[in-house]
Amino acid sequence: MVLNELGQKISQALSMIQNAESIDEKVLDACLKEIVTALLQADVNVRLVGKLRDNVKTRANNADKGAGLNKRKIIEKAVVDELSSMLSSGVDEKKLVDLKKGQPNVIMFVGLQGAGKTTTCTKYGAYYKKKGFKPALVCADTFRAGAFDQLKQNATKMQIPFYGSYTETDPAVIAAKGVEEFKKANHDLIIVDTSGRHKQEDSLFEEMRQVSVMTKPDLIIFVMDGSIGQAAEDQAKAFKDTVEVGAVILTKMDGHAKGGGALSAVAATKSPIVFIGTGEHMDEFERFEPNAFVGRLLG
Ligand code: GDP
């Protein structure tokens, strides 16, 4: 995964600080320049990168004023803290992943068309099925012809019950009926797939809002193509402004994704990345642990 490459580059930059005989402005600037370059190359939003740079500098300069403080450690910690706050969002992602069995967890998926939502819904269901949950899938995508068939096909393959309609045109009605039916049947994980559009349009957001009102999800997951780069922040923000996005799943991390868009999306939604998709197959899906990722930066 390319996010790891970013991690390696940042570690290397930090080693400049660790290896320098004394830490002056020049060393700090050289180190920060490498970090900034690595983040920009990874498609992290320019504004966020600038903010990280300024904050680390401020903390390093403040360290000059304090006597006896280890400047190396302060800089190192500042970089890690800044990355953590970008990536970890302040939310404990484990709480969002460790669903409680035996109660109906309703999880709604949102995202642009082509992001990988429908595929990810089934991967997500299959992941929890392996853990002993009783998942079910609801197709509330009435916009894209074939969406229900695609979900049906995936669900059948993974032996997960599904609900949808070829005739009902109101996605909020389908979603509500599906959730109700599966709650009655004692499913403890009810996954609601919603429509995407190519662009962020008002109608998409209104529909999403209605589905959310009707199904009262416990968690809304924003599915984002991991390779979208600089556009990630705006896109993520637009979704977050409409519904209560609580977590992010990045797809296509097997392809050309540089991962930096992810950092920007997390910063925009203040929601952690919980899983990543690493291929088209149902088992190409893994947990992502933001704290572990940042922790590894320091080796
Ligand atoms: P939706 O429009 O958001 O529901 O997207 P789909 O689930 O239909 O996925 C769009 C395309 O992306 C399909 O061809 C999927 O097979 C593919 N896809 C989804 N997730 C991944 C992934 O993690 N890696 C790769 N390589 N392809 C993926």
Automatic annotation (TrEMBL):
Belongs to the GTP-binding SRP family. SRP54 subfamily. GO terms for molecular function: 7S RNA binding; endoplasmic reticulum signal peptide binding; GTP binding; GTPase activity. It comes from Coccomyxa subellipsoidea (strain C-169) (Green microalga). One of its GO terms (biological process) is SRP-dependent cotranslational protein targeting to membrane, translocation. Residues 272-285 form the SRP54-type proteins GTP-binding domain. This is Signal recognition particle 54 kDa protein. It comes from the Eukaryota. Component of a signal recognition particle (SRP) complex that consists of a 7SL RNA molecule of 300 nucleotides and six protein subunits: SRP72, SRP68, SRP54, SRP19, SRP14 and SRP9. The keyword Ligase does not apply.
